[in-house]
């Protein structure tokens, strides 16, 4: 806490001095906790200027296109780390030693199976149900099976729940896919790493041996890392708010999945591919750019823009290179990639996009990569949810470890009717 203060002068009121708290890097905050004594609330729909909590997990500088997880730059993690290393870093705060990593990996590997009765939940869904609807249901239902890790005030319980969620999300995600195509579920294998195991459960069958393509496994590992955490985004804030009431971890992660599903958030990767198909050819790009700029048209250029990044999303840069690498290694010519590259080129020179600082975000290229490795579009956001689970858990855990934590209960600007008689 610094000695600096912000002073608020409100007509007819005593001046109000509000402490300023400095950050280790980036903007400091004005501590407004006592402002309510003034009879006023702050007003900030969408929380553009509001810090909802203190956190040590992820730092973003949107103007410089910087993303750090516990201080490690995302570009270095995406290049040199394994996804489970990033999970350890997000959960425990620093890079694991080789021994710590092996123990962590072994624990996660040996929790990847789900209770056999979980399979029954799938039978209640239509085969063509959106897998995000299924994931909301089955992840929330885990609370009905794991009563030994529901005490959110017990840090051992929280750690067990963290391992269970991190381990079982890929298994449940692959079960969603298998159920949607009418194939039997495939059990996880303990001799495969996290990314390989996910792809194995997605694409293997019981009828023949299946070898995971190392190119696919490498790019899925990268995609998992790039989507692992992103500060107080909508779904993470949802998990924190749900968790602040003491709700169990499985219910909180299910709430995060529900929020992520929205097309303005995690649903953008699926929506972006739909948009590229809707554009259809590079000759239609100008027409769709005009729609995106038209205030009276609800169309937005999906995969562009970000609440924080007013520069290139550093994840999009890594994703762009991975996209080119995968298509080259697989010798795939995808016309949607041609449209994406031309769209990016035009948009980055267009006055409207420059003035509004709209750059490609993490969702712009991921869909093309996932399509190239044979993952159906309706599974894209599920993969985002698998990857983001560790971020949600790390923030949920940090919240419960923070003595300042209270139940989240924002106020409002009331503009409704004054008191009036009913009869
Ligand atoms: C993710 O928060 C996170 O960190 C999210 C995420 C994560 O890792 O968790 O990074 C993941 O959700 C990435 C974003 C994926 N969504 C999309 O690609 C959908 C398209 N993008 C937009 O809907 C929008 O850019 C948002 C939702 C991402 C950000 O919205 P903001 O910050 O509320 O900005 P805004 O809607 O107020 O837009 C500012 C201006 C507006 O014009 P004006 O009202 O000022 O005249 O820019 C315009 C918008 O109309 N604008 C766009 C646009 N995005 C913003 N115009 C056309 N196309 C777009 N994509």
UniProtKB/TrEMBL annotation:
Family: Belongs to the citrate synthase family.
Gene3D superfamilies from the UniProt entry: 2.20.28.60, Citrate Synthase, domain 1, Cytochrome P450-Terp, domain 2
Residues annotated as the enzyme's active site: 306, 363
Functional pathway: Carbohydrate metabolism; tricarboxylic acid cycle; isocitrate from oxaloacetate: step 1/2
Protein name: Citrate synthase
Cellular component terms per the entry's GO annotation: cytoplasm
Recorded catalytic activity of this chain's protein: oxaloacetate + acetyl-CoA + H2O = citrate + CoA + H(+)
Region forming the signal peptide: none
Keyword presence, Transferase: yes
Pfam families reported for this sequence: Citrate_synt (PF00285)
GO biological process: tricarboxylic acid cycle
GO MF annotation terms: citrate synthase activity
InterPro entries: Citrate_synth-like_lrg_a-sub, Citrate_synth-like_sm_a-sub, Citrate_synthase, Citrate_synthase_AS, Citrate_synthase_bac-typ, Citrate_synthase_sf, Citrate_synthase_typ-I
Organism: Candidatus Photodesmus katoptron Akat1
Superkingdom per UniProt: Bacteria
Cited PANTHER family: CITRATE SYNTHASE
Keywords for the protein's UniProt record, in alphabetical order: Transferase, Tricarboxylic acid cycle
